[in-house]
Design a protein that fits this description.
Length: 111
């Protein structure tokens, strides 16, 4: 979920993440995670409780909220491991050659 401000309401959070904020906590399908006593919706506390990454892009003035990691099985960094594949010319392409740039990886499988 990409947002330009941390000042969002529970409905916006729900639309973007699939987590509905209810009196009993944050709920998605059959799972509800208690959020504890609050004086209102706090996106920072909620993302921390759900194990979601919350990352700020200063230059773009945007925030990104990542998926939940309730089982603590998240990547410890946003740095991808080295990946070497052949390009269309048959030459080796190293993912690390793009280090420092924003990269979107798209994978496809024919099955």
């Amino acid at each position: 979920m990409i947002i330009d401000s941390l000042d969002i309401n529970p409905a916006e959070f729900g639309r973007g993440t699939g987590w509905e904020i209810k009196p009993q906590g944050a709920c998605k399908a059959e799972i509800c995670v208690p959020l504890g006593p609050t004086d209102g919706f706090d996106v920072i506390a909620t993302t921390e409780r759900l194990g979601m990454a919350l990352v700020r892009d200063e230059r773009a003035g945007l925030w990104a909220i990542g998926p939940e990691t309730l089982g603590d099985k998240a990547l410890v960094s946003a740095e991808a491991p080295e990946l070497v594949l052949e390009d269309l010319s048959g030459d080796e392409f190293h993912l690390s050659s793009l280090r420092g740039q924003k990269v979107v990886l798209v994978a496809w499988a024919p099955y």
